[in-house]
């Protein structure tokens, strides 16, 4: 719009005041100024745009109220009343303001903006006037006048900063609505959003600021949702400058781009329509750490519960899947960790993930093979339907991994699935049949040469296959059905396990019997032989031998310990008695 020529007040230029209002000058006290301004406020509040005669009559007063005496007045009440008058003046004289000087308009709007800080204290006696000021400005869209000013951005930045800083949990929906209307009209009806103005919105999404002022975050979120069609281009330009062109100096928020992308995606994926292709570009970066940062970000976006990003942007999804084969180990590890959330939240993507998890289940890095197992087992524990036979097959293969940590994770994971779905039947007969092979596979491992594997099978049998915590009758039923359903090799393994356990109990019994005999060299030699045979059945044979020597020495000195141990290895020892023995050993 073109600004009109300076309007002239009626008559000889003398300022006309409303009836009963005396002249307002710097010669009177602040209290008197406030008293007279309240009457002026009431006059302008009652006027509307059709009051042509009054508009001309009080034009001189309107110009007077924008003088330095009022705009720089040190009294807070005076400033508030003047701001209310000015807001009404813009309403009454719209669409053309009576102030034609660009500098004067800038001063006025910066002045009004400063007064809006009073909105912060809802318990203030003056809060209703501050609310009236906000409501008036939002309803008339008064700030849109500033579009014609060369430095309007300075005004808008101050306005946005002020509103985001004052909003708090004591404000009702009307306050929030008027703030929203005021800011959204500036964004949607202007020629564009500058980076500085965009920053005043985006800074409220950064975790540190978000946690400081939840209401400012909610206001920014709602504002972005309302203006998505307009502001998306500005957001895309920002990320293009930082991500593609590497111009981090364009904004103080450049170091937070990934946090911002995550937040914006959660608010409305439409805000990032043009940004996603830029992330595909960053996934192919030569910098491993940069690829890792993008993978972490996209893992959150693809894995989010209601995310449709994978189906909406297949090229980006395929590019992301390619990072499962990244040369950088941390990138591959991050991808595997992501798969767990993805399988749980998006089972429809399991087919895409299966082939990549298969490759990673044979990864040269132990940590990655381990996490593949954790990923599959966690998904299976949540819902067995989330993991197909192929995925379970990868875990099955890893029970024979060259690394103990990986083998242990695979065995324990399968045991947990067996207990959940076969023993407790938490998902019905079909699920139990699907993993019925687990019991046989776990017992087959008893044939391995490693004593660690054998001992873990014994632990799994006692905790997951025939849990020792069951009542005697239930335990016998459990054992009966298990034994009846095992394949031939698993039965042989189970019999061998019992045979070894019985042999070990026999060795301990013989050791205890030797302690009852008089001390002699022959007796000591016999004890040593028993200790070495027992140590062979414990992990880390070297350390086990030293441990058994010390344990034998304690046995010789503690008769109560020998009694408890005899009870523990007795065929008639109950679970309750065993618990008592274990407590004694612990003490």
From TrEMBL:
Any GO BP annotation: mitotic sister chromatid cohesion
One Pfam family, short name: PDS5
Main subcellular location of this protein, as a coarse class: nucleus
Gene Ontology cellular component list: chromatin; nucleus
SUPFAM superfamilies (alphabetical): ARM repeat
Record keywords, A-Z: Cell cycle, Cell division, Mitosis, Nucleus, Repeat
Subcellular location: Nucleus
InterPro entries documented for this protein: ARM-like (IPR011989), ARM-type_fold (IPR016024), Pds5 (IPR039776)
PANTHER family associated with the record: ANDROGEN INDUCED INHIBITOR OF PROLIFERATION AS3 / PDS5-RELATED, SISTER CHROMATID COHESION PROTEIN PDS5 HOMOLOG A
Protein's UniProt name: PDS5 cohesin associated factor A
């Amino acid at each position: 719009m073109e600004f009109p020529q300076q309007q002239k007040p009626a008559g000889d230029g003398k300022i006309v005041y409303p009836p009963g209002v005396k002249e307002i000058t710097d010669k009177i006290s602040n209290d008197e100024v406030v008293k007279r301004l309240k009457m002026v406020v009431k006059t302008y509040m009652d006027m509307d745009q059709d009051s042509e005669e009054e508009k001309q009559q009080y034009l001189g007063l309107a110009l007077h109220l924008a003088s330095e005496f009022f705009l720089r007045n040190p009294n807070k009440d005076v400033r508030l009343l003047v701001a209310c008058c000015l807001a009404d003046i813009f309403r009454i004289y719209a669409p053309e303001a009576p102030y034609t000087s660009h500098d004067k308009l800038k001063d006025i709007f910066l002045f009004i903006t400063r007064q809006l800080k009073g909105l912060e204290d809802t318990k203030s006696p003056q809060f209703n006037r501050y609310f009236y000021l906000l409501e008036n400005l939002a309803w008339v869209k008064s700030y849109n006048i500033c579009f014609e000013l060369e430095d309007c951005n300075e005004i808008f930045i101050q306005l946005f900063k002020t509103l985001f800083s004052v909003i708090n949990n004591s404000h009702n929906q009307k306050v929030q609505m008027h703030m929203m209307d005021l800011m959204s009209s500036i964004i949607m009806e202007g020629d564009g959003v500058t980076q500085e103005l965009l920053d005043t919105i985006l800074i409220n999404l950064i975790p540190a600021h978000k946690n400081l002022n939840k209401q400012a975050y909610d206001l920014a979120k709602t504002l972005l949702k309302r203006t998505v069609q307009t502001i998306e281009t500005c957001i895309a330009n920002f990320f293009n400058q930082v991500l593609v062109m590497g111009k981090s100096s364009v904004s103080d928020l450049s170091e937070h781009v990934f946090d911002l992308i995550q937040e914006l995606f959660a608010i409305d994926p439409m805000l990032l329509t043009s940004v996603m292709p830029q992330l595909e570009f960053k996934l192919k970066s030569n910098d491993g750490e940069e690829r890792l940062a993008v993978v972490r970000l996209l893992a959150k976006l693809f894995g989010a519960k209601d995310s449709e990003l994978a189906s909406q942007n297949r090229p980006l999804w395929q590019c992301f899947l390619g990072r499962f084969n990244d040369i950088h180990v941390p990138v591959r590890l991050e991808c595997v960790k992501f798969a767990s959330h993805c399988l749980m939240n998006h089972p429809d993507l399991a087919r895409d993930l299966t082939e990549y998890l298969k490759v990673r289940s044979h990864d040269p890095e132990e940590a990655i093979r381990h996490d593949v197992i954790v990923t599959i087992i966690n998904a299976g524990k949540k819902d067995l339907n989330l993991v197909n036979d192929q995925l379970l097959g990868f875990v099955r293969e890893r029970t024979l991994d060259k690394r103990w940590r990986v083998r242990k994770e695979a065995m324990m994971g399968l045991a947990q699935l067996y207990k959940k779905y076969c023993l407790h039947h938490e998902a019905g007969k079909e699920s139990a049949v699907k993993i019925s092979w687990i019991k046989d596979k776990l017992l087959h491992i008893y044939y391995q040469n490693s004593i660690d594997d054998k001992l873990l099978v014994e632990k799994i049998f006692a905790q997951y296959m025939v849990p020792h915590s069951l009542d005697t009758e239930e335990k016998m039923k459990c054992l009966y059905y298990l034994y009846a359903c095992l394949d031939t090799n698993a039965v042989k393994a189970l019999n061998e396990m019992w045979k070894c356990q019985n042999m070990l109990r026999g060795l301990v019994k013989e050791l205890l019997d030797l302690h009852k005999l008089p001390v002699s060299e022959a007796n000591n030699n016999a004890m040593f032989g028993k200790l070495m045979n027992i140590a062979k059945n414990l992990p880390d044979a070297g350390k086990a031998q030293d441990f058994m020597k010390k344990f034998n020495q304690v046995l010789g000195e503690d008769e109560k310990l020998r009694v408890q141990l005899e009870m523990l290895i007795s065929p008639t020892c109950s679970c309750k008695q065993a618990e008592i023995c274990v407590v004694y050993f612990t003490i």
